């Protein structure tokens, strides 16, 4: 006895929307699958472009909050650095005499001792 390669559609399944869609999909695959897919991609591009712009504008506002007067005053309190002066200042420190100190742990935190 030979079996058919295609199943015989039952009467209940032929009138559903899914069965009609599958039958139409075989005839017009681009119209029912490709076109909606491509339109979602293009529409998503148009929707996400303003959202990305809002994100970058918010970041720019956060970065530019320093006023002109504050900007002019930022460099005044800096001390001038001379590489030789820094070398001699660090060389004058006694780095051989030091003592290890343990940091106090929070309550319930392990101190790392076995």
UniProtKB/TrEMBL annotation:
This is Cytochrome c oxidase assembly protein COX16, mitochondrial. It is a single-pass membrane protein. Keywords: Membrane, Mitochondrion, Mitochondrion inner membrane, Transmembrane, Transmembrane helix. InterPro entries: Cyt_c_Oxase_assmbl_COX16 (IPR020164). The keyword Cell membrane does not apply. It comes from the Eukaryota. Required for the assembly of the mitochondrial respiratory chain complex IV (CIV), also known as cytochrome c oxidase. May participate in merging the COX1 and COX2 assembly lines. It is found in: Mitochondrion inner membrane. Its main location: mitochondrion. One of its GO terms (cellular component) is mitochondrial inner membrane. Belongs to the COX16 family. One of its GO terms (biological process) is mitochondrial respiratory chain complex IV assembly. It comes from Neurospora tetraspora.
């Amino acid at each position: 006895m030979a079996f058919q390669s295609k199943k015989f559609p039952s009467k209940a399944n032929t009138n559903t929307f899914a069965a009609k869609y599958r039958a139409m999909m075989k005839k017009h695959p681009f119209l029912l699958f490709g076109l909606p897919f491509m339109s979602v991609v293009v529409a998503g591009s148009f929707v996400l472009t303003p959202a990305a712009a809002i994100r970058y504008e918010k970041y720019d506002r956060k970065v530019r909050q320093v006023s002109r007067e504050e900007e002019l005053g930022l460099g005044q309190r800096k001390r001038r650095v001379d590489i030789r002066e820094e070398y001699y200042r660090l060389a004058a420190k006694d780095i051989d005499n030091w003592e290890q100190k343990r940091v106090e742990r929070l309550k319930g935190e392990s101190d790392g001792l076995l």
